[in-house]
Amino acid sequence: ELAINRACALVCELGVGDVMEGTIDLYPNKKEEGHLTVSASWINKFLGTEIPVEDMKKYLDSLDMPTTINGDDLEITSPTFRVDIAIKEDIAEEVARIYGYDKIPTTVFDETPTRENKHKNEVLRGIVVDALIASGINQSISYSFVSPKVFDKIRLPEDSPLRDVVKIKNPLGEDYSVMRTSTIPSMMDSLGRNYSRSNEYARLFEIGKVYLKNEDDNKLPTEKNVLTIGMYGNCDFLDLKGVVENVLDRLGITKARFVRESENPSFHPGKTAGIQLRGKSAGVFGEIHPDVQEAYGLDVAAYIAELDLDLLYEASETVKKYTPIPKFPAATRDIAILVDDSVLVGDIEEAIRKAGGPLVEKITLFDIYKGAQIEEGKKSIAYAIVYRDPKKSLTDNDVNKVHDKILKALEHKLGAQLR
Q1: Alpha carbons 120 and 413: distance in angstroms, whole number
Q2: Do 366 and 402 contact (CB within 8 A), yes or no?
């Protein structure tokens, strides 16, 4: 209003026009003055200063923000042109600016934000992301809603409970009409899109959720956190297994068991493994079934891991424990055994540890052989076993007793023969 009156006055003074009486004010969303009440003691605590409340009033008055003092509180009116004044931190900033940043002493926060202040799962999520990025995997994000047709593309049986989905009442279209119960279709879609754009290889991971329908339709679905890893191009099953082991290692999970998995229809029956933690299935990983690869336009082998993050978080142990350098020397024995081709390496190592007890410090697989001099359907597996007693030096007799016990356990449980 002040500006328009001045403009009209100049029109009259210069004789360049006639000014009509009256004013038309078309301002449907008029900006009102703001009002804030801020504690002076809070401002001092926030800034780490000891500014008197009277000085704060003087600073704010000088900025066209009329202020009254009510005990320890400052009642402030902010003008319409100060649209940046909305919260108490804004007032503290104005006080600091006029008081002088150079006068504000260097202080330490009362509570330093550290990982310990975060929720445990948030910390573990960061550890998982760090481990995957360090493994050369790129993070991706996909929609949580998918098409019901994806279940056929991943060869899911008609009677699978994963087909019982939560349907969206107002979907964007059929391709986004249900909530996903598996993350495999989303990851395969990402891999297929990369392959269609002539990318020679892809390494992706996603941390997302699946939504499992409750029996009571009035209840919200159960949400599970899932880690999905996908890759193709210049890689094989062992590359994916190595990435999975990196994640488990960073989470401090030492008792995970890898078991043969041949019943999952989305995966190649001979190149897939499951993960077990505390007797529960924690996920599956391996080569995707050729029919599924074809459905997503991939002409090369693709490898995917789908892991239950909630179970991984539950089994994690990230507290590092100090182990002193051993005082007594170790004894190493090599062992080569002949077993059926169907016997798993994990079962052999588990049998060795159980039979050897606390004296077995380390087991290292250094050779697997099939071919000449080995009977058809058999394989030769060789290990280096390190024995150590933290309380004394082991004699040959001590080591031989445990070593013989291990050989008998392997023969009895797995039908192994010493080579």
Answers
A1: 41
A2: no
**Which among 314, 405, 320, 397 has a CA at the least distance from the CA of 358?**
405
The CA distance from 194 to 211, in Å, is: 26
The encoded tokens of residue 412 equal 């009895």
Instruction: Compute how many other C-beta atoms are within 10 angstroms of the C-beta atom of residue 373.
Output: 7
- Token pair, residue 159, equals 């009677």
Lookup result for tokens 């879609």: 189
Strands of the sheet with 138-139, listed across from one edge: 138-139, 202-212, 222-232, 302-308, 280-288, 267-277, 257-260
List b or e across 71-98, with b for residues whose CB sees 16 or more CB atoms inside 10 angstroms. eebbebebeeeeeebeebebbbebbbee
What are the residue ranges of helices labelled H in 316-395? 345-356
Angle, helices 237-250 vs 120-134, to 10°: value is 140
Q: Are 364 and 355 in contact (CB under 8 A)?
A: no
User: Which of 300, 293, 243 minimizes the C-alpha distance to 273?
Assistant: 243
Distance set, CA 23 to CA 6, 20, 113, 334 (Å): 13, 9, 56, 101
Work out whether strand 202-212 and strand 138-139 pair parallel, antiparallel, or are unpaired: parallel
Helix (H, G, I), strand (E, B) or coil at 311: helix
| Main-chain phi, psi angles of 20, to 5 degrees | -85, 155
How far is Cα 105 from Cα 50, in angstroms, rounded to an integer?
10
Q: CA quadruple 278, 288, 168, 144: dihedral positive or negative?
A: positive
pLDDT tens string 251-282: 999 888 898 898 899 999 889 999 999 889 99
Exposure pattern of 20-56 as b/e (b: 16+ CB <10 Å)?
eeeeeeeeeeeeeebebebebebbbebbebebebeeb
Q: What is the pTM of this model?
A: 0.67
Q: Report pLDDT digits (tens) over 60-81.
A: 999 999 999 999 999 999 998 9
Spatial CB neighbours of 74, under 8 Å, sequence gap ≥ 6? 37, 38, 39, 40, 43, 53, 56, 57, 60, 67, 68, 91
d(CA 281, CA 308) in angstroms, rounded, equals 8
Angle of CA points 133, 138, 142, to nearest 5°? 130
Q: What is the mean pLDDT of the chain?
A: 91
Residue 146: Cβ-neighbour burial (10 angstroms; 0-12, 13-18, 19+): buried
